[in-house]
Predict the 3D structure of the following.
Amino acid sequence: MENLKENINFQSNRRAFLSKTSMGIGAAALASIINPVKGLAKSFASDNPLGKPHFAPKVKRVIYLFQSGGPSQLELFDYKPTLQNRNGEQLPDSVRGGQRLTGMTAHQKSFPMAGSQFKFAQHGQSGAWASELMPHTGAISDELCFIKTMHTEAINHDPAITFFQTGSQQAGRPCIGSWLSYGLGSDNENLPSFCVLLSRKINGQPLYSRLWGNGFLPSLHQGVQFRSGVDPVLYLNDPEGMSKTSRRRMLDYLKELHHLQYEKIMDPEINTRIAQYEMAYRMQTSVPEAMDISNEPEYIYEMYGEESRKPGTYAANCLLARRLAERDVKFIQLYHQGWDQHGNLPNDISTMAKSTDQSSAALIKDLKQRGLLEDTLVIWGGEFGRTNYSQGKLTKTNYGRDHHPRCFTIWMAGAGIKKGITYGETDEYGYNIVKNPVHVHDFQATLMHLLGIDHEKLTFKHQGRRYRLTDVHGNLVKDILA
């Protein structure tokens, strides 16, 4: 008996106690009558009561098109004629400034500057630069905000991607989508607030499920991966021989058992488990409908490109992202691998650009024609950029580029963001930032601001410390806000 009491005291905490009061189970029960997912999700938000935004948001949902591997800004958006004019010359030591390099180029005897082999042109009234590899993106440049001065401390893929997704280079923290689910809840009771789509496996750096994990937040807030094929979400369908009536009866009895267990142990994760079971039950109907693109009109396939007909491709996932946005999924994360061009860059980046350019631009146009771009934020970018010098031998037709964290380009479009602007400036060599740097935490703080969240106030106490997505850094990039 004494051991049982000690166990109960150990597992109890402030949040568990509050959930036992009138603002806990009672509030969750009342809210669940209106919206079960909102009721349970919001009752867990301690420092942000009831999951409400801190101020009026400009963005209702986010679609993040993450380009894994580090796209070369010098071949896509950051036009540097000086590199072309000085192609093959050694990178001046004064420009490099003793920056630490990866093990792949640290021992190179020379660092020949490599000008892009692709033509650049200015587009639209904004005059934004884009290479011939990105004609569709260039055509919509007046809808975009290019940030050319992103920078990070990470120089290798896994810590760099983890940094962008979780605010820390070390694994274990909650990702952006989980923070938003925790802070804001869900706007759709039949779909998760945080959905993940991965392009069909191609050569590239591996992606780990912890990138869309909930970390130390309740597991209700983890990302749900949607797959191509018969079962878009694993283990969602009922076993053979089980009817919907039997499934409903089983869940009802299971909920009663969970409530009894909660009364004894007061572990908030038990309530989370109930919410997950209920969500899975509703998703049995909502997921097949959301993932069925067979009724999309022909002009939509033409807009997104022929690959949009093939499940699991980047183009098909862009189309699915629009469908999920229509259904008020709050955070939609796409991952596309293959941008890590240490060698054979001209050929490989052409392939990657072709697989993403048309469908990324189509997503913007599609959202706009449906009136969704007014309250949707779309983000395109990777974990770092590429060096202005060649990794390995530089020839007339071939070269590679190593990782470069000092400056790289992403773009944003949609709600709350100025249209047709280019923010920040890099030097003539494309190596250092000379104007308006944007750190990863600045980007995250700005993203959360657009959703009505003060990044310094949305916190979670874990192991005696209050954590937040931006750790102890992050400044709002006011100049890009509409």
